[in-house]
């Protein structure tokens, strides 16, 4: 998530989780929980395509250039993917990372694994790019596969992140039982 302490972001995620908790139809009212709700495929499907940062959603057309591989990696047509992004003023590059976040709603603990960032210039000619990261060692919980985009400028031979980082995109590619 963006590091800026934005209350609207946490309120939005809380609201989403509360709406998903209502899909727990096995537990009596007042005792519904996310652990049971996420045992239903419908709940996981409602998370796919979710943008955590409403101020920076993944553009609709960019989504069509992303392929989630069976092995858990992400392949993208980098040239077309980047051409659909809106680059904030002063930013010429984007770092793309994928994450596997395994969260156990029963005990309230999570494990995050992340790929190495792939830096792409807004004028890249790279056709195919592949991102991968290991799956979390545990297999207890719900696995979220996320795509993160963070925008950078290039100054003095270094990538400099956009500040404030409110333009960071965090998008759910897949959600379901762990592997």
Molecular structure report:
- A hairpin with a 5-residue loop joins strand 1 and strand 2 (74-77).
- The strands form two sheets. Strands 3, 4, 5, 7, 8 and 9 form a six-stranded antiparallel sheet that branches.
- The protein has helices at residues 7-21, 34-37, 41-47, 60-63, 78-83; strands at 66-68, 74-77, 93-104, 109-114, 118-121, 128-131, 142-155, 158-161, 169-177.
- The protein is built from five helices and nine strands, in the order H-H-H-H-E-E-H-E-E-E-E-E-E-E.
- With 179 residues, it is α+β, with helices and mostly antiparallel strands.
- The protein is globular.
List key phrases describing it.
six-stranded antiparallel β-sheet, 5 helices, globular, 179 residues, alpha+beta
Could you spell the SSE succession in H and E letters? Answer: HHHHEEHEEEEEEE
Structural category is alpha+beta
Count of beta strands: 9
Q: Could you tell me how far the N terminus lies from the C terminus, measured between alpha carbons in angstroms?
A: 24 Å
Helical content class: 10-25%
Topology:
Layout: H1 7-21, H2 34-37, H3 41-47, H4 60-63, E1 66-68, E2 74-77, H5 78-83, E3 93-104, E4 109-114, E5 118-121, E6 128-131, E7 142-155, E8 158-161, E9 169-177
Antiparallel strand pairs: 1-2, 2-6, 3-4, 3-5, 3-7, 7-8, 7-9
